[in-house]
Here is the input.
Amino acid sequence: MAISVVMPALEMGQETGRLVAWLKQEGEIVRMGDPLLEVETDKAVLEVEACADGVLTNITGEVGEEIAVGHIIAWIVSPRESVPRIADGASVSPPTSPPQQELARTTSVSEPPAASAGPASPRARRLAKEHGIDVGKVRGSGPGGEIQVSDIQAIVDARSHQETPTAAAVVAPTSRDTASAIGRLMAERTAQSWTTIPHFFLQRDVDATGLNRARATLGAAVEPLHGVKLTHTDLFVALVARMLVKHPLLNASWNDDGIRMNPDINVAIAMAVDDGVVAGVVTNAERTLLSEVSKQRHELTDRARGGRLRPADIIGGTFTISNLGMFQVDSFCAIIIPPQAAILAVGAIVDRVVPLDGGIGIRPMVSLTLSADHRVIDGRKAAAFLKDLAGTMQEPEKWLV
Here is the structure.
């Protein structure tokens, strides 16, 4: 049976996607699961897989084109099978929130799924109605893509700004005119987070002797398994995840109804790419073996740098780690990624002179800075998490073996 290849909905509320590249050529045989094309969304460039075996034919989607979600851009047919005759510009309406494992699949024309509006809180719907905003076209920042009051307010504020442009904005274009979708989203989300979330920061210097020892000893055991070098970031992901079990509020989220406790612990790792920063997610990190954490981090990094991230790579993060130690940054404050409640900033491990047994000594030290949402976490609970995390760093082997 002929199967249509459509521009998929990879994110909640997505209306269009930019076709970056075809990974298969017209007339080429494809297998189900083969990388078929690359699509740029507001978050990243993602690979879309073939949903069937067959021959790729009738490619109409042009590279670089912004294409409506559900629009047919090619067909996968059996050998000697003809493409069904349909009206020009036909499209298939994809589900608004497809199951995660099906995000990259395409849809048969004969069985079009029904479209539905994204979830929105009652307050967000009221505000949207007051300002004539269609919530079905809003990309939510809450858990599962839920549309929150802050999302609607951001649109209202943007409209107000557009209605009263400054003289400079009229005279010359801004850098946003040439920014990529990833860069634009990063700017918008960062501004939204900083202006709507009541951040507070806790900083602690920790002796990294145990962490360095664990990297050497555990690395010798786990690196041969996947041929991937164990990093300090891998150790932090594993240790943080295990501490989040003990401190679940640090793994929670804030929405319009209050605090939401997340059942899963999915640690996101901030990764620099050419156009900005993306956060690859290690799911269920608290029960993932260190060797598997290292393997996943390596694969996520490779796909992020190569522009080949998949939808599942960036969905569902509940806590983020940002490590700039490899750039010799001593310490920094990171901005929370909504709707998460906290993010941990990790600096460089540097030998420092410290008090030691009534005297002084030299120890490898690392600065950890926790940014937390004061609506979810108070200072005492955040400090307790940081204290326990510092404790695990003295003997990581007890937690990771």
Residues 92-117, 161-179 have pLDDT under 50 and may be disordered. The chain has three domains: 3-102, 122-172, 198-400.
